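Researcher: Next sequence.
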Amino acid sequence: MTTWLAWARLLRVANIFTAVADPLAGWLIVGGGAPAWLLFPLVGASACLYTGGIVLNDCFDYRLDGRERPERPLPRGDIPLASAWRVGFGLLAAGVALAAVAGTAALTMAMFLAGMILFYNAWAKHIPAMGPVALGGCRALNLLLGMRCAPAEFGWMPATLGLYVAVLTWIARREATRPGVRRTVRGLLLGIIVLDAGFVALTGDLTGAVIVLALLVPAVALSRVFAMT
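Model: Next structure:
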């Protein structure tokens, strides 16, 4: 049980719902598609890519977290670093494979998203001006993953989501020195679901918007047990 809890903390399980809200919203924004079951590998791909990125984030930051976030599973020694590296890259590969099931467009976006995740973790996040932009781009791609295309009339939606996450990332940089910021970051992370639901509502699909918004329930519940940052 202790091992499972450590992995749940490493994977930021509450955040997964903020990630899958993006492709779900993207799917609903463009009116879905046929066959409808393709939504499931798209959502699965998003969950794998996101959690893979989260695990690799902690792997790359292992030494830094040892000083600034020693309560995290890797610096605490709850999970071997080598295992985390394998799981992180394995999840990225699984995400790309699941996206391939949904077609060439989804596969292309998933591969690009996986590359952006690695770019952010290995390099971009260490550059103040580049990190927020790169992570915002990842979120924009996550929404586009569900769309499987980029219709001109909806292009402002992934751009808005990307800007929102870029601002969120910039604010989150202060967590290490100002622990009180964590509550603000938690609220902004949960706000991604609200933003996605708003995008769907603007297309006139109120039922779809409620479905996306319902992801707040498990996200909030899990965020009370597991840290989101």
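Model: The two ends are 22 Å apart (CA to CA). The longest helix spans residues 39-60.
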